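JOB MANIFEST
job_type = single_chain_structure
chain_count = 1
residues = 389
[input]
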Amino acid sequence: MEYWSEIVGQPEAVRALDDAAALDVTPSHAWLITGPPGSGRSNLAFRFAAALISRGQDREAVYKQVRARTHPDLGVLTTQKLLIDIKAARDIVTTAHYSPAEGRYRVIVIEDADRMPERTSNVLLKALEEPPERTIWILCAPSEADLLPTIRSRARSLRLVTPSAADVARLLHERDGIDAGAAERAARLAQSHIGMARRLASDPDSLARRDRTISIALGVQTLGDGMRAAASLVKVAEADAAAITESLDAREREDALRSLGLPPGAAIPPQMRSQIRALEEDQKRRSTRSLRDGIDRILTDLLSLFRDVLLTALRADPELINRENEAAIAELADRWGPERSLVVVSAVETARERLGRGITPALVLEALFATQSTAAALAPAELSLGGNR
């Protein structure tokens, strides 16, 4: 099935969606696609959306429009904020009642459906209870537990798995033309997260920032080291977020000016300033979210490092994620032992949970490295008596 060739490591899901999108089948009116970050939830959702809209031989042409978010029969609900607000949900529900303009169905994709608070979810629930005849909803979330039971019960669920690093590397090599060795390293370091693997393989700056993250963490021994490491990694995350958003912000501003009939660099008439201000506010929210996402990526990288240390300390003969740092990992495992290593792994997991609750990223990292430096100084007996409280 060449149309689905970009979808990695999800053969059962692809078969189910391809069958559901067949011309002689009436598909379920709502779908819930769940899977871990990097499993390809959004890519699969938009491929499925194009297949549902398509009338047969035009799948690829429809997908190009769907990917660009320009197809008239596609609606997308997403957010640059931490939560999807109720007004955005009401607006998209209103469009659900429009008849398809060109395709077989009108399809509405909700990315990050787990970001809907209960009030917002209830707006969607009403639309799912009384679905328009030719509208199909596709919701994406990390797990079914992230949505209200009443919404889960009204959607057909499709669970994705984490693709293997070998599958991700093969995709990068065959589709993007990336050297096989570089593709293998990127897929391994990204822990099979497809989007991150592509960035690490194609952007030397992204790979250098990850290498710096690991180097900084390996250098923490004292509390002072930890506080300096926290400050440095916030700067790493800020640089990563800026790399993602700056070119996108400039392109969006240029497009907005063009749509208003203004050449690049022209003065903005007073009556048009509110539209540009709204764009700038959206971009500021995206920048904030990108920074938090960058901190979470750093924490994911640190978790991979300290799990490597823990497994090495346990003499588990692990296949290291951070193979390039094998000597430093072995030295740290000998110095910490399993008890200290487990304390630090738990501290990273706690840091990710705190970040998800909206705690300031700098404070999250400072608390993590304070725990790391303290754990490194304590004896195993002290740890068991509460050193990780």
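[summary]
Residues 384-389 have pLDDT under 50 and may be disordered.
Residues 273-313 form the longest helix (41 residues).
exit_status = 0
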